[in-house]
Write a structure and sequence with these properties.
By secondary structure, the chain is of the alpha+beta class. The protein folds into two domains: 8-119, Creatine Amidinohydrolase, Chain A, domain 1, CATH 3.40.350; 122-349, Alpha-Beta Complex (Creatine Amidinohydrolase). It contains eight helices and 18 strands. The longest helix has 22 residues, at 125-146. The structure holds zinc ion (3 copies). The site of one zinc ion (ZN) has 5 residues, from loops.
Length: 351
Amino acid sequence: MGELGVDALLLSLGADLPWLTGYEAMPLERLTMLVLPADGDATMVVPQLEAPRVEPRPDVFSIRPWAETEDPVEIVAALVGARTQLAIADRAWATFLVQLQARLPKASWQVASNVTGPIRAVKDADEVAALRAASAAADRVADQLISGEIPLVGRTEAEVSADIGRRLRAEGHDRVNFAIVGSGPNSASPHHSAGPRVIERGESIVCDFGGTMNGYCSDITRTVFTGAPPSEFRDLYNVLHEAQAAGVAAASVGTPCEDVDGVARRIITDGGYGPYFIHRTGHGIGLEEHEDPYIVGGNCEPLAPGHAFSVEPGIYVEGKWGARIEDIVVATDAGPDALNTVNHDLAVVEA
Ligand code: ZN
Ligand code: ZN
Ligand code: ZN
């Protein structure tokens, strides 16, 4: 905050609040906001009926419950006082920001992630351990997928997605965040939401799933083929596999984020699939499934020890098929540390 000249941080929805206080605000129309001045004590403004869920941490913040007939925006504005350089939670509701802007006309605003993003992006040893445990649990489900333990042919994408979600929970996840199952032509849609389409033989199936375990996220993608894949698909997959491995290998400390993207993208482009790789190579991961640092062209930030992120190139031929391979990687002084270790070869499942 000092470096950025921020007088007060206003945290609400999103992961910054639980990261600092242990309390996660519910996405409600009632305002929850931690007012954290650079030069004073932090106060959690919280609806009175939510206050019992807040674990008191008097050494960290005081609690200001507000009753139904009070105006929480006024309470926050009073706590901000004469401070003018404010950073507000990226995911705070616009309704509260608009009201605060009206009450604090002299204030200038920026997003809280300017302050919290770079700090949260660097994981300490406990956080890496939590990410490793979540990735290992996701790996066990991915193993079940590529070994053919999860039936595919004849089931709908939605059934397989629900099955994957149950298995994530069985392997220790507290919450399933997503379980993308894109089959056949749907595998060409990177964020396809699993639907009623029945999986057939002779199709590529992109499965991208993850959840939260002890507060930290997992995120893995494996692509399987139902039956023997045609050589055209094998070629596509081989290029993708090489690109993903090269991206992981390039993820060493000091390498700019965009270079990791560039390494993977060049291989895919040289292989003739450049126009079919339609997203960035990866995203940071931690308390949130997508956070800093982003592995994308234009992000010149060098990787630092403790940066945790995905490397997930994909190739998508619209209307036909697609493939993606994704692992979570941590940059360390000893080199890239891949948290997912499940086999990357094109898995052929018969059922
Ligand atoms: Zn993913
Ligand atoms: Zn991802
Ligand atoms: Zn591999």
